[in-house]
Amino acid sequence: xxxxxxxxxxxxxxxxxxxxxxxxxxxxxxxxxxxxxxxxxxxxxxxxxxxxxxxxxxxxxxxxxxxxxxxxxxxxxxxxxxxxxxxxxxxxxxxxxxxxxxxxxxxxxxxxxxxxxxxxxxxxxxxxxxxxxxxxxxxxxxxxxxxxxxxxxxxxxxxxxxxxxxxxxxxxxxxxxxxxxxxxxxxxxxxxxxxxxxxxxxxxxxxxxxxxxxxxxxxxxxxxxxxxxxxxxxxxxxxxxxxxxxxxxxxxxxxxxxxxxxxxxxxxxxxxxxxxxxxxxxxxxxxxxxxxxxxxxxxxxxxxxxxxxxxxxxxxxxxxxxxxxxxxxxxxxxxxxxxxxxxxxxxxxxxxxxxxxxxxxxxxxxxxxxxxxxxxxxxxxxxxxxxxxxxxxxxxxxxxxxxxxxxxxxxxxxxxxxxxxxxxxxxxxxxxxxxxxxxxxxxxxxxxxxxxxxxx
Length: 456
Hints:
Blueprint: E1 5-11, E2 15-22, E3 27-34, E4 37-38, E5 45-46, H1 48-63, E6 68-75, E7 80-83, H2 101-110, H3 114-117, H4 128-138, H5 140-144, E8 148-151, H6 152-161, H7 168-171, E9 178-179, E10 184-185, H8 187-191, E11 207-210, H9 213-219, E12 226-228, E13 231-232, H10 233-238, E14 253-257, E15 261-264, E16 279-283, E17 289-295, H11 297-305, H12 314-323, E18 326-328, E19 344-346, H13 353-375, E20 381-385, H14 393-400, E21 406-409, H15 414-423, E22 433-435, H16 444-454
């Protein structure tokens, strides 16, 4: 047995991960499974029972390896669970489900103004308020049984501890439910009669209590293992950078990459945010509004390169630039600054898998660069998440952001590090990073300029 450890439950839109991390922040073990959306029942919904049973089995394996002192849930946003004393009153709706068009028209008339929530109007269920309004309208009897509306991290914390809590990072994630500048619920919550369903607000790092005795017995967890309140995933990635803005230098931008690529500018101004560009103010774990912009980069990369993308070389990248093949947004339907526009590839065809990967890489770099410019990023840039596994991404970005240092973390999951921090509040794990050397590709800045002129 090693010293005490913690478990981070990391539910992303594509995968679910459990990580066992020791007191020094070193990952001891990791398990993954797909985050499956089920098509049975009244609407597409998350496989919460599948995740739950897999999670308990995996926790049992981890508990046999190290004494676990805490469990921290970290999840994607735009997701909530409606529960009573016994469990879910309705399945957890998948945010990519599109409610009926008539309901959208009705909801748009009721949602708060962008200037109060900094939550842009988004497609499908990406505005959580729209999901809740539709569920209340379509399933009134079930909705009436709801005791708590739980944000997704806090749903898992509740299942583990039995304690219901609310937390600002998920509430402030383009939900229409929260006013980040005033740190209070929006008029939508009060006007819809949901205020009594919102559990007490807690800090993301607060222990809610020990794991339920029956679960401790089933998994082998220590009886005193604490369940931490939990956090929205991109805000978990942001945690270790929150104190980086105390100097007079321009605040660093954080580029959190995965299914979603989210650019965040801690300390940035809100008055430059534009609803039409899917720009928003997330709410940090400390309650601070953080200007953000995002696009579905991982999904779009897969659409261009294929799900089984092969590596590309610098020569492949140069070939795409030389021949003038461009990918123009957007290749995903779930929001982003070019939402509603159908993606296209213009220029000579790409005969090889490596060339398609090269085009996907160039596209994601150009979109990230566009987002950083829209945010007003002028200082350092930190890249973390799954795109750190692409050796060309950060060097290509660095070549476009002259005068700004682009740094790459060695941690492909800032969410896991953020989860560790919540269980060790006041401490940050040792994170190794390196500056990205700009890649020397002939005509790369000119390729960007041409891409900008081709944008729809």
